[in-house]
Amino acid sequence: xxxxxxxxxxxxxxxxxxxxxxxxxGVVNVTFNGGRSYKYTGVSRRAILNLLANPxxxxxxxxxxxxxxxxxxxxxxxxxxxx
Length: 83
Prior knowledge:
This protein is of the alpha+beta class. The chain contains 2 helices and 5 strands; from the N terminus they run ββββααβ. It has helices spanning 45-53, 59-68, and strands at 6-7, 16-22, 27-32, 36-41, 74-80. A 5-stranded antiparallel β-sheet has the order 1-2-3-4-5, covered by helices on one side. The radius of gyration is 12 Å and the shape is globular.
């Protein structure tokens, strides 16, 4: 585990089971409620800091805006776990 990986407190999310974000490296690891886990690299460090500072922000919306629907990030499928 790298230094500065922060477990993002799960807010009542229908999609996210758990999420780690690293504001230094711009890496976000997400496990969704269905059990699929993804690693996003190249995520905006400013967006990660904003997420960590704002506890009322929707995780699903944030992931879609900053990880999925952006050209700057790369995604890799890690594994699937039964949740």
